Structures are given as C-alpha cells and as structure tokens.
C-alpha cells in the first residue's frame, strides 16, 4: 500500500513539473536550472520539442549514475521521467496560461518546486544534474552543492545570452522560489520543535506537561554556571503547532522560566498529532479562558 501511495505522489509531482514547464516557463522563455533549463534552451535553438531534449539529456545521465543512485531510486526516477516526458508531449500544443512576469515567476516556481519536491520526497528525481551530482560526489568526492552551483551558474549565464538579461533575471527568481518550495515540501511538513526548559519549578512544570498535554519529557541533570548547584532541565519534542500552548503552560507555572526552542527537521519516534486534536485543544483553551474570566 505504501508503495502505491508513493507512486501516486510521484505521478502527481511529475505532472506538476510538466505543467510548469510547458504551460508557464518555456513559452515565456524562462528557465529554472538543470537539465530542464537545458531542454527549454535546446527547444528554442532547435526544431525539436522540450521532451526530446529532456530525454536526450537525462537518459545518458541516468544510465551513468544508476548504480550510484541505487535500484529503487533509479526505477522511481525512470518512472517520473517517463510521466514528465508524456505530459510534455501531450501539452506541447496547449497555449501558455499567462504572460504576466509576476504570475510566471510565482506560479511557475510554485508548481515546479511543488512537483520536484513531491518527486524527491517519494524517492525519485527529475533533474539530471542532481543525479550527476550524486555520481560525481561518489566517484570524485566533489561536494553536491558545489557541483550543482557551478552547473547552474553556467546554465543561467547561457540563458542570459540566449533569452536576454531580463529573462535571465526572472529565471534567477524562479530558481530561488523553486528551491524554497522544494525545501518546504521536504522539511516543512516534518518540522517539530525541540524544547529545553530551565526553571526553579521543574516538578510542577513536568506534571503539567505530562498530565495536561500528554507529552513525553526527559529530565536532564545540569549544574548552574554561577551557583554551581545541581539543577534539573526539562527536555521534550513537540509538534510546532502546539508549541505556543506549551510556552503558555510553562509561563503560567513559572513566569521566569527560560525556554530554548529549536526547529528539528528530522525526528524518529515522535508521533504527529492530528490537526483535529490541535483544533479541539485550541477550542478548549479559549473556553477555559472565558470560564476563568
């Protein structure tokens, strides 16, 4: 079942990429970087469609890097590329949905970033330069970020020569937006908050967090830097939507308590609470506040 869901999300992501390329970016001579940008530039210079150049660039790269990527990743990448190529072929004669520079950058970057993010999140890839970067890292120890930055600088410079400086400037904005959306898709939904609480009233705070918020907490042993006396520190990981409630609960017990909170993008064993439960909790807080008032 999990594999089926993964492939559904891979399909959705690949379709979004095809829509962004063929209906928004390519007709308006904007690129984002990587082999998709090279495909758009190739279609402008030659008399072939975008899908032809994307296939020409990605096929040999996938063949070279398949072993480095692993069988599972390679098969999913092959599937995603097939869906993208089919989508580009079907959408080839469909006119662009907009010619507004603002809408092109906004929706082109949003759709492309969302599509690529969904593909990567579910174990695949579309951009051949990313596959090549992984292969170069394993073969020659070239950092992935350095490789991608160098390649995309060259590609965007070529876009400036081909499409003009203004188009290249808009393309940089698209590239930036795509990167941010991908980061959000990969990390934004998984973010939790790591919290450390320093207080002279640790036990009442611990009881409230455990009994009222059903949190799992850990008590750390520390030593005061000024007093040299031993003291307890409360540590826990909480859903980012519930952090405001935790902070309010702590400060109700001890207004002078010190909280250190950090965003965590990866955590194991922390179960995310359903949004419904968070809404119910928020409603109860408001009702409790009205009753006290």
Mind explaining what this structure looks like?
By secondary structure, this protein is α+β, with helices and mostly antiparallel strands. It has two domains: 1-187, no CATH class; 192-289, Alpha-Beta Plaits (2-Layer Sandwich), CATH 3.30.70. The chain is 66% helix and 11% strand. The protein has eleven helices and four strands. The chain is elongated and about 75 Å long. Residues 272-293 have low confidence and may be disordered.
What is the topological layout?
Layout: H1 2-25, H2 34-45, H3 50-69, H4 71-90, H5 101-121, H6 128-140, H7 144-163, H8 165-187, E1 192-198, H9 202-212, E2 217-223, E3 230-239, H10 243-253, E4 258-264, H11 275-292
Antiparallel strand pairs: 1-3, 1-4, 2-3
Distance between the termini: 50 Å
Strand content: 5-15%
**Could you tell me the number of beta strands?**
4
Mind telling me the C-alpha Rg? Answer: 25 Å
User: Could you name the ranges where pLDDT drops below 50 across 5 or more consecutive residues?
Assistant: 272-293
Which range best describes the helical content: under 10%, 10-25%, 25-40%, 40-55%, 55-70% or over 70%? Answer: 55-70%
Q: List SSEs in N-to-C order.
A: HHHHHHHHEHEEHEH
Could you say which structural class the secondary elements and strand pairing correspond to?
alpha+beta
Mean pLDDT: 83
The total of helices stands at: 11
Shape, principal axes of CA atoms: elongated
Task: Indicate how many domains the architecture comprises.
Answer: 2
Biggest sheet architecture: 4 strands, antiparallel
Strand order of the largest sheet: 2-3-1-4
Main location: membrane
Pfam family, one: YitT_membrane
Organism: Lujinxingia litoralis
Keywords: Cell membrane, Membrane, Transmembrane, Transmembrane helix
């Amino acid at each position: 079942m999990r594999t089926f869901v993964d492939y559904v999300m891979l399909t959705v992501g690949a379709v979004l990429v095809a829509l962004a390329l063929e209906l928004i970016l390519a007709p308006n001579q904007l690129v984002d970087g990587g082999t998709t940008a090279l495909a758009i530039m190739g279609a402008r210079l030659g008399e072939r469609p975008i899908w032809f150049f994307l296939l020409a660039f990605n096929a040999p790269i996938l063949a070279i890097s398949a072993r480095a990527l692993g069988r599972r990743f390679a098969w999913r990448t092959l599937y995603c590329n097939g869906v993208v190529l089919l989508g580009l072929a079907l959408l080839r004669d469909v006119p662009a949905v907009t010619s507004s520079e603002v809408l092109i950058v906004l929706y082109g970057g949003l759709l492309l970033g969302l599509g690529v993010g969904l593909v990567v999140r579910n174990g695949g890839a579309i951009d051949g330069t990313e596959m090549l970067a992984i292969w170069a890292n394993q073969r020659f120890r070239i950092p992935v970020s350095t490789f991608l930055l160098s390649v995309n600088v060259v590609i965007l410079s070529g876009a400036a020569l081909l499409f003009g400086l203004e188009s290249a400037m808009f393309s940089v904005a698209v590239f930036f937006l795509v990167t941010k959306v991908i980061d959000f898709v990969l990390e934004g939904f998984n973010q939790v908050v790591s919290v450390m609480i320093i207080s002279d009233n640790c036990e009442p705070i611990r009881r409230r967090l455990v009994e009222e918020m059903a949190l799992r907490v850990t008590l750390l042993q520390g030593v005061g830097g000024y007093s040299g006396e031993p003291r307890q520190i409360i540590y826990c990981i909480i859903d980012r939507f519930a952090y405001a409630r935790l902070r309010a609960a702590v400060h109700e017990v001890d207004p002078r308590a010190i909280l250190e909170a950090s965003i965590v993008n990866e955590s194991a064993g922390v179960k995310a609470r359903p949004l419904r439960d968070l809404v119910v909790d928020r409603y109860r807080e408001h009702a409790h506040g009205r009753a006290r008032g």
